[in-house]
Amino acid sequence: MTPCYDPTAATVATHTLRERPMVPSAPGKFHRVLNLAHGVTVNVRLAGPGDERGLLDFYRTLPLEDRLFLKDDVTTDGWVARFMRRIACGEVRSLVAERDGRVVAEATLARATHGWSVHVAELRVAVARIVRRHGLGSALAGLLVEMAIDEGADKLVVQVVEHQVAALQVFRKLGFQPEALLRRHVKDLAGRVATCSSWPTTCRTPGSRWKP
Q1: Model pTM score
Q2: Strands 11-16 vs 31-35: parallel, antiparallel or unpaired
Q3: For residue 88, what is the DSSP state?
Q4: pLDDT category of residue 172 using cuts at 50, 70 and 90
Q5: Directed axis angle between helix 165-173 and helix 136-151, to 10°?
Q6: Which letter, b or e, does each residue of 157-169 get, where b requires 16 or more Cβ atoms within 10 Å of its Cβ?
Q7: What kind of fold does domain 21-154 have according to CATH?
Q8: Distances (CA, A) of 200 to 59, 96, 104, 135, 197
Q9: How far are the Cα atoms of 7, 72, 194, 203 from residue 209, in angstroms, in the given order?
């Protein structure tokens, strides 16, 4: 999952947690006010029904290079309909960060409900350029790690562009380290292939170092 992307390579990071199935959450049950660097304040809450237009507006304003390695085209009505269904059935937790009533970042925790990877949760963070370099991506990543631990996942996976220095620094600060290289493992929206690497980290407990 992806803060922002370079068309040359992608990185996979993993984090070991404990296992428990995710269940649907009501959007109103989570709310945080984040006071970021340079006086920037955002409201963070769980996404749910009614957020379709805000999510599409956010992703459609992201430059193409920031969306190249996302696993789906997040600018389509079909994507947001599928995304909302996944939220409703408990496969996905989505945090939206809002400033002045507009979505400026979205962070997703996704987890299969069946199959051999049910213990694995996947994380994606996307941040609008106007609020980057304020610590928002790092804060949202930390909240998702907390959430994954609380949900009982056994392993957390993060995908970022290998040469995107800022994104790599965020996950390094959270304890992720490179492990294995997967050459020509992903393909971007333009059809270009890129290399992935695996990043594991040690298990953390809620409240240890993940709170922004």
Answers
A1: 0.78
A2: unpaired
A3: H
A4: confident
A5: 40
A6: bbbbbbebeebbe
A7: Aminopeptidase (3.40.630)
A8: 28, 26, 28, 22, 10
A9: 31, 31, 32, 11
Which two structure tokens, joined as six digits, stand for 28? 């109103």
Q: Retrieve residue 75's tokens.
A: 């600018």
* CA distance linking residue 5 with residue 193, whole number of Å: 13
Tell me the residue type at 18. R
Report d(CA 61, CA 6) in Å as an integer.
17
Q: Could you give the count of Cα atoms lying within 13 Å of 136 in the half-sphere of its Cβ?
A: 29
Domain-wise residue ranges, the chain: 21-154
Lowest mean pLDDT among 6-15, 182-191, 194-203: 6-15
Closest to 153 measured CA to CA, from 205, 111, 116, 123: 111
Place of tokens 């997967």: 182
Report whether pLDDT(137) > 70. Answer: yes
Q: What's the pLDDT score for residue 180?
A: 65
The mean pLDDT of the chain is 77
Q: Hunting for tokens 């920037």 — which residue is that?
A: 40
Considering only CA atoms, which of 59, 189, 64 is closest in space to residue 125? Answer: 59
- Distant-in-sequence contacts of 185-193, Cβ < 8 A, 24+ apart: 185/10, 186/10, 186/69, 186/159, 188/5, 188/7, 188/68, 188/69, 189/64, 189/67, 189/68, 189/69, 189/70, 189/73, 190/7, 190/68, 192/7
Residue 147, both tokens = 């959430």
Residue 182, burial from CB neighbour count under 10 angstroms (0-12, 13-18, 19+) = middle
